[in-house]
Amino acid sequence: MSSLPNELLAEIFQYCSTYNADAPLLLGSVSRRFREVAHNHPSVWHKLRLRLGFGTEFTQIQKAGLWFKNRGACPLNVFMNITNTCATRSATSESEWFTNNYPFLIAFFRKNIHRIHALTLQSDTELKAHDLLDAITATSPVSPTESLQLHSLHIQITTDIPPMPSGWSPVFESFSLFPQLDSLKLINHILPALTPPNILHLQNLSIVRPLTAPPLPTLKILRMISSAPSLIHLDIDSRISGQPLPNSILETELPALKSLSLRVNNLPFTLKLLASASLEKLRLTDLDGRRARAGEELARVMESLMRELRTKDNRSSGLDLLKSLEIAGIHCVSSTDAHWDWCIRHLPRLESLTLNKFGCVDLLKVLSEIKPGHLDIQTGFYCPRLSYVYLSGVDALLLLQDLKVRRPSLRIEWDSGGPVWHRPVTDYPRTTLSYTAGGYGFASLFDYDRRKIEDNRAMKGISLNDEDSSW
């Protein structure tokens, strides 16, 4: 370790701080050299984590000041936990909790608000979270030369969502304070009413709600999405009510999404409303996937979209641009095989296919077939750009072996559902079973899951909690 150059050591420290925001302090206490490396490289101090209610206000300001000082002029990502179970539940006290308890910390963040690139808030209620936003931006200039630079805002509410009227959407003026906001993630948060210019530049929207929360009305989702013309990535993880929609809403122009992740019930209905011909990534998980006709309904909707969707410029149709497809938790019967086979045959740009506990596996045979009239074995397969296939929860080893023989360049992974064995399909006829080591090191089950999370981080949001390893 002592022979590593300082620049390489700082790179290692930066990766450590990615998984634990307090890593610079921990590493700086190891030795004098570690301290010098950590304090002389701003990249190590890119994430600041504060947990209010533990320690004095001066302690929090001192920690924040150290991060802003060592970060220099570089932007900073901030996580603040403002949950306080001892606080009273009246609306007045909640809306003024941050202002009354942390006046000096407010002044500090007002002075440095322009250096915060991403802000994650964990709060008991929406009122406290938005009171904090209002407080730290109260006296901030909004001139074009010095506008608020916050680009990413994540809010997680720890208390249960109360049952509310389906048409009720609270208005939080805090969302209009950040003109540069391009990423918004709401976890267990009441879906607010957002209108331009509040989210005019929003490109990433994630809505995550627990299964115990009231179903999210489809009408509210469509209204919110239609207010974000620049939206290209949408992630919804919630129960949804499949209520009939008026024709005026159905005719509303929605943004051209490039990435869509749905973990919902009423999946076919929701997919048909939100899908666009510009999609490049599609991730589908049906919360009611074990119902009798779940696979058939989804297959028919997919086939219908491929026949009917058109881009605005009419340069492509259907899902021709789709590069990544992931389907999970769908129960299929043999009668749906033909529909799924047709869908796979009409994905010319598909590069990655993930089927997680997906009942219909015979569609893999399509990937081994040569198109009629094609002699070139390299370009004659369906999905000629396919480079990765993942299958789990089903017994399909023979199909995967045959696919690997015919298309040896494919990276194929198979998980039969066991807790330890992960089976990469290698050269036929021999099948190598790669045993996962115990513990937390290289090749352990922990390491395997961590790498899988990193690969799918852009596709699926992970609910942050105060003990989350990323903070």
From TrEMBL:
It comes from the Eukaryota. Gene3D superfamilies: 1.20.1280.50, Ribonuclease Inhibitor. Pfam families: F-box-like. This is F-box domain-containing protein. Residues 1-48 form the F-box domain. It comes from Lentinula aciculospora. SUPFAM superfamilies: F-box domain, RNI-like. PROSITE patterns: FBOX.
